[in-house]
Amino acid sequence: DGRKPANPAFWWVNDKGEEVKWSFEEFGSLSKKAANVLSEACGLGRGDRIVAILPRVPEWWLLNVACMRAGIVFFPGTSQLTAKDILYRLQASKAKCIVTNGALAPAVESVLSESQFLKTKLIVGQESRDGWLNFKELL
């Protein structure tokens, strides 16, 4: 029909050459679903806070946009944080939710007893852990 294909809204490539490409329509749809996960499954509302301790995987950007859609405050953290750093961020932000991956979950779990505001834990990836919701399954 003579039209050129649309540019992707999101294009991510890891060090192994694996790619994730989302069109604007796909990214919009996924971010709406992610906002629903945060609102419904995690019970977060406008003004609530979420701490995301993830490497820059596609879910990091997806959660960032989902938080904007839902009015949730997004606190990013580097995957180099120690348990002490994580606790400080949880306490200072009064976050109700934390999202991380399987590699960082043990550090989060080691400080959970000292974080009185945290209600929900989301894990990104294929792993499953007791007491954690799997973001990919909920999406």
TrEMBL record:
**Organism domain of life:** Eukaryota
> What is one Pfam family matched by this protein?
AMP-binding
- What Gene Ontology terms for biological process does this UniProt record contain? acyl-CoA metabolic process; fatty acid biosynthetic process
Give the top-level enzyme category: ligase
Read off the SUPFAM superfamilies from this record: Acetyl-CoA synthetase-like
Ranges where the AMP-dependent synthetase/ligase domain occurs = 3-128
Write the record's keywords in alphabetical order, separated by commas. ATP-binding, Fatty acid metabolism, Ligase, Lipid metabolism, Nucleotide-binding
Question: Does Magnesium appear among the keywords?
Answer: no
EC number(s) per entry: 6.2.1.2
- One GO term describing the cellular component: mitochondrial matrix
Q: Which GO terms describe its molecular function?
A: ATP binding; fatty-acyl-CoA synthase activity; medium-chain fatty acid-CoA ligase activity
What reaction does this catalyse? Answer: a medium-chain fatty acid + ATP + CoA = a medium-chain fatty acyl-CoA + AMP + diphosphate
- Describe the family membership recorded for this protein in Swiss-Prot or TrEMBL: Belongs to the ATP-dependent AMP-binding enzyme family.
Q: Tell me what this protein is called.
A: medium-chain acyl-CoA ligase
Species, as recorded: Spizella passerina
Q: What is the lineage of its organism?
A: Eukaryota, Metazoa, Chordata, Craniata, Vertebrata
What gene codes for this chain?
Answer: Acsm4_0
